[in-house]
Design goal:
The complex is a heterodimer of chains A (about 250) and B (about 270). With about 250 residues, chain A is of the alpha/beta class. Chain A has eight helices and nine strands. In chain A, a hairpin with a 6-residue loop joins strand 8 (about 195-200) and strand 9. The relative contact order of chain A is 0.19. In chain B, helix 3 runs antiparallel to helix 4, helix 3 (about 55-90) runs parallel beside helix 6 (about 125-145) and helix 3 crosses helix 9. Chain B has one domain (about 40-250): MetI-like (MetI-like fold). The longest helix of chain B has about 40 residues, at about 165-205. Chain B is an all-alpha fold.
């Protein structure tokens, strides 16, 4: 067991957002936090990354860990080129005595693996929406971390871009295999990428259930019979009990 | 504006020229109706007075003296405004401390300020002091606004990636603040010209456009007053134009390009 979240609670004034959230995560695993929009998933990520404190509960195994974050929106600097955006995010490495050449190699590697090397000179608004998301993903992976947090990183794009992003994600993850926590409201993000899915309820969020997916990522395809078993379980955990009923 | 939506630039230069010709024509028409060069000289009389001035050494020393005063006032306002405006942006206490001064300076009429400055400073520095007090709040406000111009989501992203404070300043905060700073500085430059010349008219320092203007008024040479005024307008316009060129060149590296060469979507 590498890290654990124990009985986390969070309220904003009278708004009770998180109610007793607990789960644990293995090293180098991908955990998906699945739940309806507005249930407090981003709040959970903010607590895990230290942006905001929890009202109650504890985190074990998160101390001293380095975090990287891929936000819901790309959050790129519009006046910097793709490679300069990565250089900006990695600038703290120079202070920790990492060789400048090593940093440059790292930037080149992650640009290549995200399929953006040809566009390294382009500024964000010269890239398509999907490419901007890929650049944000490359930045999150390029920043050396123990735990990578992804907030709805695959949302707001069409299906083809989503598949491209997921492929880029798996390519990048395979490289150094950091522990990843993906927050999403989309069941497919969890099915295709996660080793463990933590399903949250409506606000105030509590853990409805946890599901371990023991399938290698490369075998997870659309309409795969094995994956659909997990899918049905996830739908049930999300509260869709009667899947056969018509609209 | 649907007339120029097909990539053709509007003929702005031509329309500017037409505007100038219309203005001069109206001036000429009014001057012909007034029929007194003492009250309103014609454009030709003002032009002739300007040509006459151009041949006199005192004109060039006056131009030089005024330009130096404008630059002095502008640089001092820029330094004071940037320093205090940035501090106010970062520290609410400094903002609260500065607030009565800024409100007081803003509410003071320019002429009252010049008259008071005449008690405190030698005539050469009266225009500079007055212009600093008028231009400084403009730069102060733009610097203070500029500090908050950086997108907080980008600041949060930078902090999560532990980007050093100096890098955040140079690569995020400064580029976000530049449009505000340039706009404030351009306004302050124009204001410096107006207040310096007004200060010179009242304080009468040696080698000054305003002094030339006042001397011409005292000797009832209205065309020469117009010639000095035209010189002031042209110099003010030219410095603002060159400052604009400088800032455009400097800020172009921080601007987001308008074209989107890659528009076909994902590959």
């Amino acid at each position: 067991m590498s890290a654990a979240v124990k009985n986390l609670q969070k309220s904003f004034g009278s708004l009770h957002v998180l109610n007793d959230i607990s789960f644990d995560l293995e090293d180098s695993s991908i955990v998906a936090i699945l739940g309806p929009s507005g249930c407090g998933k981003t709040t959970l990520l903010n607590i895990l990354s230290g942006i905001m404190p929890a009202d109650a509960g504890s985190l074990a195994g998160f101390e001293g860990k380095r975090f990287s974050y891929c936000f819901q929106e790309p959050r790129l600097l519009g006046w910097l080129s793709a490679e300069d955006n990565l250089r900006f995010a990695l600038s703290s490495l120079l202070q920790s005595n990492t060789n400048a050449i090593t940093i440059e190699r790292r930037i080149e590697r992650f640009l290549r693996e995200s399929g953006l090397f040809e566009f390294k000179e382009y500024k964000p608004n010269q890239l398509s929406g999907g490419m901007q998301k890929r650049l944000a993903l490359a930045r999150a992976f390029a920043f050396p971390s123990d735990i990578l947090l992804l907030d709805e990183a695959f949302s707001s794009v069409d299906l083809r871009q989503k598949i491209d992003l997921m492929r880029a994600f798996l390519r990048l993850w395979t490289d150094e295999k950091p522990t990843v926590i993906i927050v999403s409201h989309d069941i497919h993000d969890a099915l295709f990428l996660a080793d463990q899915v933590v399903v949250l309820s409506q606000r105030p969020a509590r853990v409805e259930g946890r599901l371990y997916i023991d399938l290698p990522h490369e075998t997870r395809t659309f309409a795969s019979a094995e994956l659909s078993k997990y899918e049905i379980t996830l739908y049930r955990l999300l509260g869709f009990d009667n899947l056969d009923s018509s609209f | 504006m649907p007339r120029y939506n097909n990539g053709i630039k509007p003929p702005s230069l031509l329309w500017r020229l037409i505007g100038v010709i219309a203005f001069v024509a109206m001036w000429q028409l009014t001057a012909s109706l007034v029929k007194s060069s003492l009250i309103l000289p014609s454009p030709w009389e003002a032009g002739a007075a300007l040509l006459h001035l151009l041949r006199r050494a005192v004109f060039w020393t006056s131009v030089g003296g005024t330009i130096l005063r404008v630059l002095e006032a502008f640089v001092i306002s820029l330094c004071l405004g940037l320093a205090s405006g940035s501090l106010s942006g970062f520290y609410p206490e400094v903002k609260a401390f500065m607030s009565p001064f800024i409100t007081g300076i803003r509410a003071t009429p320019v002429l009252a300020l010049i008259l008071l400055a005449m008690f405190w400073f030698p005539s050469t520095q009266v225009p500079v002091f007055s212009a600093v007090l008028m231009a400084f709040p403009v730069i102060y406000t733009s610097a203070e606004t500029g500090v908050h111009a950086a997108d907080q989501k980008l600041v949060q992203m930078s902090e999560l990636f532990h980007v050093p404070t100096s890098t955040i300043f140079w690569r995020l905060r400064l580029p976000s603040a530049l449009p505000y700073l340039f706009s404030g500085a351009k306004n302050a430059l124009g204001l410096s010209w107006k207040v310096v010349v007004a200060g010179e008219v009242l304080a009468q320092p040696r080698m000054a456009l305003g002094t030339g203007m006042q001397d011409a008024r005292l000797t009832l040479e209205t065309p020469t007053v117009f010639a000095w005024a035209i010189t002031t307008i042209l110099l003010c316009g030219l410095t603002e134009y060159f400052f604009g060129l400088l800032t455009t060149k400097f800020s172009s590296q921080f601007q987001q390009p308008q074209e989107t060469p890659y528009e076909r979507g994902e590959q």
